[in-house]
Amino acid sequence: MFRNIKDTLSRSTAMKASVVAGLAVAALATGVPAEVSRSYADAVNVQAPQVPSFANVVDAVSPAVVSVRVESRINPVADEDDSFGLGRGFDELPDDHPLKKFFKQFQQQQGRNQQQGQQKGQPDSKGHLRPVAQGSGFFVSEDGYIVTNNHVVSDGAAFVVILNDGTEFDAKLVGKDSRTDLAVLKVDGKGKKFTYVNWADDEKVRVGDWVVAVGNPFGLGGTVTAGIVSARGRDIHSGPYDDYIQIDAPVNKGNSGGPTFNLNGQVVGINTAIFSQSGGSVGIAFAIPATTAKDVVADLIKSGTVSRGWLGVQIQPVTKDIAESLGLSEPSGALVVSPQDGSPGQKAGIKNGDVVTAVNGEPVKDPRDLARRIGAMQPGAKVDVSLWRAGKSQSVTVELGTLPAEQSQASNDDNSQQSQPQQPSSEKALADLGLTVGPSDDGKGVAITGVDPDSDAADKGVKEGEKITSVNNQEVSNAGDIAKVIEQAKKDGRTRALFQIQSGDGSRFVALPINAG
């Protein structure tokens, strides 16, 4: 058996040798080398379109971006024996009790931490400095002025900035502005010239443009992320000057105060807020536009404060219903709820119910637009304010005041009241509105004593206990006054009337339908 297998193998080997010999002869006959070699496929190499790299931008701007460490003064809360209020009663426990042992270790550790903090923070009699926040910032001048967010430095007693090479400098607070969430720090480089960056013209920034954010997220300084401009003019209800640039570059805690650059290395905006339920980036971040920041920073560097123009009127948006009730062709401008007593607007003759439609000939889009325009002007400037009043356009000249540090709520003091006889149609007119009214306690306006829950008035938030002080900018003192104004509005072809509602929270305007009955 083994022999037969051997013979078979011998014959097979001989046959293979003959085939190989035949191949060799054929190869020689055709001029191909007799040696047989293996060939391999080439490695994958895709010739894809080249995407612009951000490396040159990052190399240029990184030395100008800093991390900001904020320290606050923390007062001791108790004496040395019981600094945390945990020692009382533990001394009575046996020495080998685990709770007593744990407490002693806890006290020892806190003592070491406190000692380290004292050495680092240079304490005084008021307490000790502790790191309480970290953020980002950037140089805007070679002599050491740094821009960051107000909310980064607002609780700080001392500030340290760390450059991208790890060098640390103590910094002092030059000024801050809570309304725009901006602040300026200054470091003394003792003759050192710092790398700084310039502002971009963000008016030229388009949705879809590339941007690069550099900052200190989670304490990881010198972190670079990239994305695009997602939207412009965002209002996140953080203040009257909201006009944010929305970006999708990943921005996280610690990026606050850091810059967002265009591909020319210019600052498009200052990162100030993120939209997130977890505290991490979800691709929606908001930056203060460079055009806003540039002027505010210049004022802070110059004087440490920001002076803004002040009109002194309480305003609200013009909705479609309100525009129709006033005879406006479109819902734009800012509706004056009431001018503040003694304000520049009141002195110039602006009244409640007026709609500010333009400033110095430039149309006003909405209340935010008006607030930004007036706030950007200097106190004492004279401006031409266009108004829509009683179905007509007119203008007044206002000399702006200085915006107070804390604005008080506008009051609505109606000095002139007229008493009109009760009109027969008043009950039906108010029933159509879903309202019942009665005399007010102070004799000013008409008290709302009931609101039909299925009425438009209820849908617009009108409540029992509030007052109607005017209708279509005409003061009212009883139901007859209201009915009379409504009848006149119907004759004028209006389908809605503008009610001024007074509550404990202030005054507002509500447009209600009057086309029934």
Task: Describe the 3D structure.
- This protein has 517 residues and is of the alpha+beta class.
- The chain folds into four domains: 50 residues, no CATH class; 165 residues, Thrombin, subunit H (Beta Barrel); 94 residues, PDZ domain (Pdz3 Domain, Roll), CATH 2.30.42.10; 88 residues, Pdz3 Domain, CATH 2.30.42.
- It has eleven helices and 26 strands.
- Strands 1-2-3-6-5-4 form a six-stranded antiparallel beta barrel.
- A hairpin with a 6-residue loop joins strand 21 and strand 22.
- Helix 9 packs across helix 11.
- The radius of gyration is 37 Å and the shape is elongated.
- The termini are far apart.
Characteristics of this structure?
517 residues, alpha+beta, Thrombin, subunit H, Pdz3 Domain, 4 domains, six-stranded antiparallel beta barrel, 11 helices, 30% strand, disordered N terminus
Summary?
The chain is of the alpha+beta class and 517 residues long.
Helix content: 10-25%
Main beta sheet strand tally, sense and closure: 6 strands, antiparallel, barrel
CATH architecture type of the largest domain: Beta Barrel
CATH topology of the largest domain: Thrombin, subunit H
Uncertain segments are 1-10, 19-30, 76-90, 113-126, 406-425
Share of residues in strands: 25-35%
Secondary structure blueprint with pairings:
Blueprint: H1 2-30, H2 55-61, E1 65-74, H3 98-121, E2 128-139, E3 145-148, H4 150-153, E4 158-162, E5 168-177, E6 182-187, E7 210-215, E8 223-234, E9 244-247, E10 259-261, E11 267-274, E12 285-289, H5 290-303, E13 309-310, E14 313-317, H6 320-326, E15 334-339, H7 344-347, E16 355-359, E17 362-363, H8 367-375, E18 382-389, E19 392-399, E20 401-402, H9 426-433, E21 435-439, E22 446-451, H10 456-459, E23 467-471, E24 474-475, H11 479-491, E25 496-503, E26 506-513
Antiparallel strand pairs: 1-2, 1-4, 2-3, 3-6, 4-5, 5-6, 7-8, 7-10, 8-9, 9-12, 10-11, 11-12, 13-20, 14-15, 15-16, 16-17, 16-18, 18-19, 21-22, 22-23, 23-24, 23-25, 25-26
